[in-house]
Inverse folding.
């Protein structure tokens, strides 16, 4: 099953209309004005520009408004000609021109204002310009540095948000891919089980048509259960109920030759197990137990060992060959191992070993405890 992968968002060029601004326009202007008002409120302006005539709140407001408007202009110029995109000689030249414009515009606005507040016929434009040159140049580069810092801080925050979104998308895609693989593995199990049962039915139909008809009816009911559910995990009680239907089907096939014993520990019925994990193990046990003929004995057990749930299916067949603990490498066992790895990682595993006493093999599934006891 293919999982669609969303296309990566296009790179945003700095200074373009699509680039997200680090702060909205109106709040930015408010913050800039507030900063200038605070700065001008504590500054003694005559130490830097002797021609300024302080006149209380009106003077502070005039200087703060002028500084705020020109600061927004510096920020706009910095965004229009960013340092990382412009050759540095051109960038320096642009901002030298910007510093000159900032100097001239500031004096052009503030000089008439202060002449009205405190007229001085001896003060000339040339004097006002020259006496404040060093102050305006210094202030321009300071404001430009603040603009660069704020802009790059906003870019860094945006990159962090984009990285967080990518991590979330990657986690979601990883989960969807794992779910798709689990669905594919389960869909692989269903036809595998069906084909094996139909093969057994085709053999029986020529020997005993009446038993074959009963087996067909039982198979129909079992298929409704196996094909209806789509959950990856089910309570152990549901898995055992499905297994009992399968065992009943096999009793019709093997009659008195089949003996199945279940030993389920107390308080385990509500714990969750992979759907259809026991049926292929029992089918595998019957397949290999029938190879030697005679009575078929299968023992199914479930117990809790600390934080792990252990499921066992034991048969009395020939068992694995000496020197190999996993000689039965059919579709069923490979499928179960893959599902356990996807669902539980290293905490879920399937081992196939020879029985401790006597002939036979033990398929042992170990998985972490999930769900409520019941």
């Amino acid at each position: 099953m293919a999982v669609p992968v969303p296309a990566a968002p296009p790179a945003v060029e700095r200074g373009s209309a699509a680039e997200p601004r680090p702060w909205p326009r109106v709040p930015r202007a408010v913050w800039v004005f507030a900063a200038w008002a605070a700065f001008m409120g504590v500054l003694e302006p005559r130490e830097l520009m002797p021609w300024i005539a302080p006149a209380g709140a009106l003077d502070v407001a005039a200087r703060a408004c002028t500084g705020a408007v020109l600061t927004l202009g510096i920020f706009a110029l910095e965004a229009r000609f960013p340092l990382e995109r412009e050759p540095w000689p051109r960038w320096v030249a642009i901002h030298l021109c910007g510093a000159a414009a900032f100097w001239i515009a500031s004096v052009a606005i503030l000089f008439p204002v202060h002449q009205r507040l405190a007229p001085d016929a001896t003060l000339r434009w040339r004097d006002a310009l020259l006496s404040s040159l060093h102050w305006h140049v210094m202030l321009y580069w300071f404001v430009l540095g603040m603009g660069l810092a704020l802009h790059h801080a906003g870019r860094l925050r945006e990159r962090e948000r984009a990285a967080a979104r990518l991590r979330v998308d990657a986690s979601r895609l990883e989960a969807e891919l794992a779910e798709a693989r689990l669905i594919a593995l389960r869909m692989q199990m269903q036809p595998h089980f069906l084909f094996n049962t139909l093969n057994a039915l085709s053999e029986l139909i020529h020997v005993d048509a009446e038993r074959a008809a009963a087996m067909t009816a039982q198979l129909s009911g079992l298929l409704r259960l196996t094909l209806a559910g789509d959950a990856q995990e089910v309570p152990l009680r549901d898995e055992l109920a499905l297994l009992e239907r399968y065992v009943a089907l096999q009793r019709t096939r093997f009659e008195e030759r089949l003996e199945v014993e279940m030993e389920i520990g107390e308080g385990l019925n509500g714990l969750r197990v992979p759907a259809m994990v026991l049926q292929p193990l029992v089918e595998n046990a019957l397949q290999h137990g029938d190879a030697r003929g005679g009575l078929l004995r299968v023992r199914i057990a479930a117990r809790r060992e600390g934080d792990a749930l252990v499921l066992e299916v034991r048969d009395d067949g020939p068992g694995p060959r000496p020197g190999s603990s996993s000689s039965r490498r059919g579709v069923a066992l490979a499928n179960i191992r893959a599902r356990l790895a996807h669902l539980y990682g290293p905490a879920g595993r399937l081992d196939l070993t020879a029985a401790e006493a006597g002939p036979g093999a033990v398929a042992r599934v170990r998985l972490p405890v999930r769900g409520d006891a019941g």
